[in-house]
Amino acid sequence: MPERPPAEPDDRAADPGAARSALDVAHLATVPPRVLIGLMALLAGLVLFAELPGRPLILHSLQKLAHPMVFGAIASGLLAIEFQRAAATRPVPAQYLRAFALATLIGAFTEVAQLFTHRDPSIRDVWLDARGAAAALAFAMTFDARWRAILPRAWRLASLGAGLVLVGLILTPLAWTTAGYARRGLEYPVLFAPASSLDLLFVGLTAGSPELARAPTSLARVPQEVALRVPLQTRPYAGVTLDEPSPDWSGYDRLAIDVGNAGHNDLTLHVRVHDRTHDWTVADRFNGEVRLAAGRRVTFEFPIEEIRVAPNGRHLDLSHVAGVTLYRIGPEGPREFWLYRVELRRKGDRADGVAGHGEAAQGPRGIPRCVDSNTAGCGEAQGSDAR
């Protein structure tokens, strides 16, 4: 009986593109094109009409993550249709390019269509859609057996690497947001202390994007001190908001805000604190007003109890505080102020860097305590119903 020739080595287990992998796009050929088109239309409709609230920030990040995920699925569906209808007439690379181009065009169309759904179109979202489509097609290329006759295994592995890089880029905003929440928890009871760009994640300005800058030497307590510069433009309300601060303020006695005015004129700042159930009326939150003298840096302290009882007809929920805002009304006065630190304090706590500074005595209800090297620099402070 003749001997059988030795079997050829089988490297399919080591080759992600060998034979027909469980991830091979050819498996989608069993799904009728009409079904695929219907599913893609449904996904595109979700992008067009579904909207999550902008806060908390994690929901916004998840909505942005949905863009590349949806259009990765759409690109895969388009590739499957190409596989069924054009396998014999169109080269494999052309099928992939066509699927990518159509997926990106559908993404652009959904953005333009948002003009009619009272939402703002975004070029950045089209870029996210394209990333998702490219990532999905890179993975499909890795496991598509048809590429074995076109590209060597090393190139298909490179495609897998490219897909993983794109996934990393897609997940970066969500990872950044998650890191911001983790840092917020670690810094508590400090609500804001500028040390890195991560500290600006929950900061919003009425003019421009928040940036850390070296504070004026005349206001610095340590060499090369960094702070948040808050520009005050000629608009009715200009200032800064700390969104989503650590929400549980129960167990603390004071809210301390360290601000500086390097200008030549006094500055009247309005301070507001609201919780999650705030109805966006002036009477349904805490409203305070402080006067910051020219060329001074001051730490104002607001009693937490007065913040709690401030809303008309109810108590502010100290376990679900949603935001702190400092703003100026009207165009008169300095063009900017500096925010150094916002924190919660208990009895006996003192501000970092102000040990030995004088403290003004507690005034009547609505007037914060003031910590400054010269209490005259605190100016006037009083309750306010503005804005």
In terms of per-residue confidence, which ranges show pLDDT below 50 for 5 or more consecutive residues? 7-19, 351-366, 373-377, 379-387
Q: Mean pLDDT across all residues, rounded?
A: 82
Name of the top-level CATH class of the largest domain: Mainly Beta
CATH fold category name of the largest domain: Jelly Rolls
Largest sheet: 8 strands, antiparallel
Would you kindly provide a written description of the structure presented here, covering whatever features stand out?
The protein has 387 residues and is of the alpha+beta class. Helices cover 34% and strands 21% of the residues. The chain has helices spanning 33-49, 57-86, 92-113, 123-143, 153-187, 304-308; strands at residues 190-192, 203-205, 212-214, 226-231, 237-243, 254-261, 267-275, 286-292, 296-303, 321-329, 336-345, 358-359, 369-372, 381-383. Strands 1, 3, 4, 6, 9, 11, 12 and 13 form an 8-stranded antiparallel beta sheet that branches. It has a 6-stranded antiparallel beta sheet with strand order 2-5-10-7-8-14. α1 (33-49) runs antiparallel to α2 and α3 (92-113) runs antiparallel to α4. The longest helix is centred in the middle third of the chain and has 35 residues, at 153-187. The chain is elongated.
In short:
By secondary structure, the chain is α+β, with helices and mostly antiparallel strands. The chain starts with 32 loop residues before the first helix and ends with a strand.
